[in-house]
Design goal:
Radius of gyration: 23 Å
Helix content: 40-55%
Oligomer: single chain
Number of domains: 2
Number of helices: 20
CATH superfamily of the largest domain: Vaccinia Virus protein VP39
CATH topology of the largest domain: Rossmann fold
Number of strands: 12
Shape: globular
Bound molecules: S-adenosylmethionine
CATH class of the largest domain: Alpha Beta
Length: 465
């Protein structure tokens, strides 16, 4: 991507897209910084031509859907270190906004609209810019087009169009929700996610973390669901904060924290996090075990496991053992058959519950990808189940919203494995003070719980099986 200099600067903001470090994206304020002698003046609330072009180029790269949007943005920011925090925030927010409302924007701008047109349509209708803001950015002909977009009215459209979802996804969701439910869910998924922290209970409890943050002027509230969660009021930069560096907290969605509570590991146990990735849940489980017993972090991705290492060092945990496996039936897995007190399968999935953070996923996923995931999930769950000792617990979880990846996988597993029975997720949570009315299986939804979308089932291997 071509490098361009921008001038939308001044106020300190930041944008990081890694899942293991504090994020994240900024809300654009539509207020330009003071014009310097080297930059042309822009109307109040508008942006410079350079920033417009840069945003358009990145949007073009993202809309090829070759790579995840957060990877494209991270790479661009790495390669353009001169870009200020405010400009980064503006670019990231704008690209994400267009991805969220892509279907609507294509209806306004034309199905084959270029990134440039989509961007102009977003500023005109999504941001509601006045015509004067387009003067330095668009030609006279384009400004006529912008005026027509501003005036356009659309018919009601199909459910998928109204929900800004691909047809196949809206159809699948109709298997679980009614039309109003799909629309409410889609609206929840189109909002930006808040920033949640998890107190590392090995070092301090949630209330102590909250007090320390507030002492330093960071506005925060206790999480509504997880007793380990702190929800920040804004999105301050925390990557260099002493409490982050000393492992007092990690960034973790509050909904994701409930999965750790469903595993409910105890001191001295042998616990396996079968799909540990960069260890978001491993670290939580390790702290709940008070760094005792043995906690194996399996994953097939060397790159993801490598990201766990610095997090382990910060966390102060000494009970975590990362293990790279080739596949779910690796000999390293087989050695653990029947030995584990608890196994978590945080399965690879379509990730559709995380659309607040990864809005491009809805355009990148497909029915074929769902089928592929279901086959993988089924195989991983069966392999992981073999590790559970009689009387031990198995938790299957995804951040998908699709019944195919959730209930259907668990139902098929239970039908084929009579030695396992279902436990009530609600009861497991209630016993830990989380008074969520979730029923037998945990279902978290952004528009209802203000968390990412999660599903989890708690299973137990019967004692004499
Ligand atoms: C949803 S992510 C896990 C996220 C992680 N638990 C966390 O909290 O950060 C799913 C993980 O499953 C891993 N995976 C994929 N196939 C696997 C397999 N056959 N066995 C074990 N892990 C696998 C992926 O590499 C990925 O890291």
């Amino acid at each position: 991507m071509q490098k361009t200099k921008s001038s939308r600067t001044t106020k300190r903001m930041r944008s990081s897209t890694s899942d293991s470090s504090p994020p994240a994206r900024n809300r654009p304020t539509n207020k330009s910084g003071p014009a310097s002698s080297s930059t042309p003046a822009v109307p109040e609330g508008a942006i410079t031509r350079a920033l417009f072009i840069q945003t358009m180029q990145i949007l073009g790269a993202v809309l090829s859907f070759e790579f995840p949007a957060d990877a494209v943005l991270s790479r661009h920011f790495r390669e353009n270190r001169e870009l200020g925090h405010r400009d980064r925030g503006f670019i990231a927010e704008t690209v994400y906004a267009v991805l969220r409302r892509l279907r609507w924007l294509r209806r306004l701008a034309g199905e084959d609209a270029t990134p440039r047109k989509l961007l102009l349509a977003w500023f005109a209708r999504g941001e509601g810019w006045p015509m004067r803001n387009f003067e330095g950015l668009a030609s006279a002909t384009e400004r006529d087009w912008v005026a027509s977009v501003k005036a356009a009215t659309l018919d009601e459209g199909s459910l998928a169009e109204r929900a800004d979802l691909p047809d196949w996804l809206a159809e699948r969701l109709l298997g679980t929700f009614d039309e109003a439910g799909v629309l409410a869910l889609a609206q929840g998924l189109n909002r930006a996610a808040p920033l949640d922290l998890r107190a590392n209970v090995l070092k301090l409890d949630r209330d102590a973390l909250l007090a320390r943050l507030r002492e330093e002027g960071i506005a925060a509230e206790p999480g509504a669901l997880s007793p380990q969660a702190v929800r920040l009021v804004g999105k301050p930069a925390l990557q260099k904060h002493p409490l982050f560096l000393d492992g007092s907290f990690e960034v973790q969605d509050e909904g994701s924290q409930l999965l750790g509570l469903l595993v409910q590991p105890r001191r001295g146990e042998l616990v396996i996090d079968f799909c540990a990735g960069a260890g978001g849940k491993t670290l939580q489980l390790g702290a709940m075990m008070r760094s005792s017993g043995r906690l194996y972090a399996f994953d097939v991705s060397e790159k993801r496991l490598a990201k766990l290492k610095p997090r382990m060092a910060r966390s102060g945990l000494s009970n975590v053992h990362p293990v790279l496996i080739a596949h779910e039936n690796d000999a390293k897995v087989k050695r653990m058959v029947g030995k584990a007190d608890r196994v978590l399968v945080d399965a690879p999935c379509t990730g559709l519950g995380t659309l607040r953070r990864n809005p491009d996923l809805k355009w990148r996923q497909s029915p074929a990808a769902v089928d592929e995931m279901v086959a993988k999930q089924t195989a991983i769950l069966a392999a992981a189940a073999r590790l559970v000792r009689p009387g031990g617990r198995l938790v299957y979880a995804t951040c998908s919203l699709l019944a195919e990846e959730n209930d259907a996988v668990v139902d098929a597993f239970l039908a084929a494995h009579p030695q396992f029975r279902s436990l009530s997720a609600q009861e497991v949570l209630h016993k830990q003070g989380v008074m969520l009315e979730t029923g037998e299986r945990l279902r978290l939804l952004p528009h209802l719980h203000d968390t990412d979308g999660f599903f989890a089932a708690v299973l137990e291997r019967v004692a004499d099986a």
